[in-house]
Amino acid sequence: MSKQLKVTLVRGFANQTQRQKVNAQSLGLRKIGQSVVIDDTPVYRGMIDKVRHLVTVEEAD
Questions:
Q1: What is the residue-level pLDDT of the chain in tens, covering all 61 positions?
Q2: What is the CATH number of the domain that holds 45?
Q3: Structural domain of 33
Q4: How many folded domains does the chain comprise?
Q5: What is residue 42's three-state secondary structure?
Q6: Between vectors from CA 46 to CA 39 and to CA 20, what angle results, nearest 5°?
Q7: Running DSSP on this structure, what letter comes out for residue 23?
């Protein structure tokens, strides 16, 4: 079983670029406080890195 990450949106999309908004929405994040559990892959890590100022990341159980 691969490692998984829990990603939570902690800031809104106001004053963010369209690219950052699309990246966060591609992760499955739409509303502040919403969390998603995703696989820990290089693709998702790159997406998280682009919006790291909007989200918190922790390992999922």
A1: 689 999 999 999 999 999 999 999 999 999 999 999 999 999 999 999 999 999 999 999 7
A2: 3.30.1390.20
A3: 4-60
A4: 1
A5: helix
A6: 110
A7: H
